[in-house]
Write a structure and sequence with these properties.
With 380 residues, this protein is an alpha/beta fold. The protein contains 12 helices and 10 strands. It has helices at residues 2-34, 36-48, 70-75, 104-112, 152-172, 203-212, 225-231, 235-258, 275-285, 304-317, 334-346, 362-379, and strands at residues 56-60, 80-84, 116-122, 134-136, 142-147, 176-182, 265-269, 291-295, 321-328, 351-355. α11 packs parallel to α12 (362-379). The N and C termini lie far apart (70 Å).
Length: 380
């Protein structure tokens, strides 16, 4: 019995060990597969190389219509392009008869060339700005071309459903990685460019602030609202109120995307140290995805000091936000484009090239291609 019992116990030990190992393997597989959604955000940044210097993007007019340009972009070291999401002259363009079908040919070409794409959505200067109440400046000017960026109708009827429709499309078209929100205001009566603290003093924003602070319901005339706040040392508090509202709206967008496509990315163009961008950055922080902030202030050349300032600003509000300097083909010569691309690549920063010409300037692409080719030669 003793002789027979010994190998029996050994067998039982081996079996138990096998069961434990198999159990661990099953548990590991379960965690990997079922934890993919939880870990996907971090994995995306690492696997795609999209964090820090990984984004090399081309943003050009006529991009949708000229997929024959894409191979040259790839050869020049770029890995992403911007496509125009708007298809029809209707505010809710994604619901038009054509919908998003116009994006299929360029996205097919993007995939063929092993690039990825971001769909541009603008907050100013396009048909969608007709939705929602109008923004009001600190001087009381009603901006017909800009919706109040805190209006529930603007978010609920335009921005959120538009981005949701693109997120759904990305599940069928994986080359579509996300959206690029063009936050520049075009053709403003007082100012254009990044949204600054001159906004928003509309009736609704102002009244909600008064109610939150228990300051009554009497609203000063539009042109007197900023001065009314300043006289009571409330202007900073007002901007913080707007920032918190923006953060809340953005979190709602993030939560909606999490139910559709958690890895769908949101980046934006143009930036300023204002309540709008602070709230936008903070609202996106919980997604744990990189947020590339495309800056036009470098159209005339790379600005290291600007980069340091933006690094500090972005880190304070979103640890995954990354500054991306842009270079403009009308402002810089081909030689200067090559020099600037080399500088940002040496610092492992993302970058982008902006163009409005058709055909796309060949000399600019040749300069970029030569820069990348020189790097590869030196590496070998």
């Amino acid at each position: 019995l003793h002789v027979l019992d010994t190998p029996s116990r050994m067998f039982q030990g081996e079996l138990a060990g096998y069961v434990r190992i198999r159990g661990l393997l099953v548990l590991w597989t379960f965690l990997v597969l079922n934890g993919a959604t939880v870990c996907h955000a971090e994995a995306v940044a690492h696997d795609r190389g999209d964090f820090q210097g990984g984004l090399r993007l081309v943003w050009s007019w006529y991009m949708n219509e000229h997929p024959e340009w894409y191979p040259a972009f790839k050869a020049a070291g770029f890995n992403a392009i911007v496509v125009n999401a708007h298809s029809q002259a209707t505010p809710k363009w994604w619901q038009s008869p054509i919908g998003l079908q116009h994006l299929t040919p360029p996205l097919d070409a993007v995939a063929k060339n092993k690039l990825h794409a971001y769909a541009q959505i603008s907050i100013g200067g396009d048909i969608g700005v007709r939705i929602g109440r109008r923004a009001v400046t600190r001087q009381g000017t009603l901006e017909e071309g800009l919706a109040c960026q805190l209006d529930p109708a603007w978010w609920g009827e335009y921005l959120i459903p538009a981005i949701e429709s693109l997120a759904r499309m990305s599940m069928e078209q994986p080359a579509l990685r996300g959206v690029l929100i063009d936050t520049e205001q075009y053709g403003g009566k007082e100012t254009s460019g990044a949204l600054s603290n001159i906004y928003c003093f509309c009736d609704d924003c102002f009244l909600r602030f008064l109610l939150e602070r228990k300051l009554g319901k009497e609203i000063p005339a539009r042109a007197q609202r900023a001065a009314w706040l300043e006289s009571r040392t409330l202007l900073t508090d007002y901007h913080l109120f707007l920032q918190n509202q923006m953060e809340s709206r953005t979190k709602e967008l993030a939560d909606r995307l999490a139910k559709i496509q958690p890895a769908f990315e949101i980046h934006f163009y143009s930036v300023d140290d204002s309540w709008y961008y602070r709230g936008l950055l903070r609202g996106l922080a919980e997604r744990k995805l990189p947020v590339f902030v495309l800056d036009e202030r470098t159209y005339g050349g790379y600005l290291p000091q600007r980069g340091k300032e933006m690094d500090d600003f972005l880190r304070a509000h979103n640890p995954r936000a990354v500054w991306a300097p842009g270079f403009y083909t009308k402002t810089l010569s081909a030689r200067a484009i090559g020099i600037n691309i080399r500088r940002v690549r040496e610092e492992n920063r993302p970058y982008w090239l902006y163009n409005e010409d058709n055909p796309f300037p060949e000399d600019a692409l040749k300069a970029a291609t030569a820069t990348v080719g020189s790097e590869r030669k030196n590496a070998n």
